[in-house]
């Protein structure tokens, strides 16, 4: 079993803990050309069988792109990912008490039974990238992987991403999709203006919590 780190924001950590998030999308290396005369590009199914385990390929009609340079996916089926999240390490003991920012400062102080905790302004919150392995409280096992265009996400997958629904929006020719709109808003808030419209290829990882 291979364990690899994975980063999540505070709201997404809360969604995992509440059982609302069982999937995450991460941008993968994009092909050098995105189509011939506007023809759409599709991606071959993810293959979990050796020797192509953990790899994906871009394809086009009449031949393949990138056949000699497969895309190495960050995670594959069976990997266990330990979640890095924003945190603080406090106290005089070694290694100290871990506070998880996603849960809120006051709640974390109560969890540890602190009698007279200092104000939150005195706590140095550490970015998720700096979380040490021993401080991790969430482990996720990858159960499925697929590669697709970002905008192709289904309503079911958008719900599995832990997105909050946005009602009142409608795609012409489609049923109302509040979670689809919610996920598009979430993606843009994380990756910046124009990131949703760029519609990159992404790897969609499904997971189950193991700790």
How would you describe this structure to a colleague?
This protein has 211 residues and is an alpha+beta fold. Helix content is 17%, strand content 26%. It has four helices and twelve strands; from the N terminus they run E-H-E-E-E-E-E-E-E-E-E-H-E-H-H-E. A five-stranded mixed sheet has the order 1-8-11-12-2, with no helix packed on it. The two termini are 15 Å apart. About 7% of the residues have low confidence.
SSE pattern, N- to C-terminal:
EHEEEEEEEEEHEHHE
Shape: globular
Q: Determine the number of helices (DSSP H or I, runs of at least 4 residues).
A: 4
Flag low-confidence runs: 35-40, 44-51
Q: Which strand order does the major sheet show? A: 1-8-11-12-2
User: Largest beta sheet, briefly?
Assistant: 5 strands, mixed
Approximately what portion of the residues adopt beta-strand conformation?
A: 25-35%
Task: Give the helix proportion (percent range).
Answer: 10-25%
Rounded average pLDDT: 85
Q: Measure the end-to-end span.
A: 15 Å
Radius of gyration: 20 Å
By secondary-structure content and strand pairing, the structural class works out as alpha+beta
Structure summary, number of beta strands: 12
Summarize the structure.
With 211 residues, the chain is of the alpha+beta class. The chain is built from four helices and twelve strands, in the order βαβββββββββαβααβ.
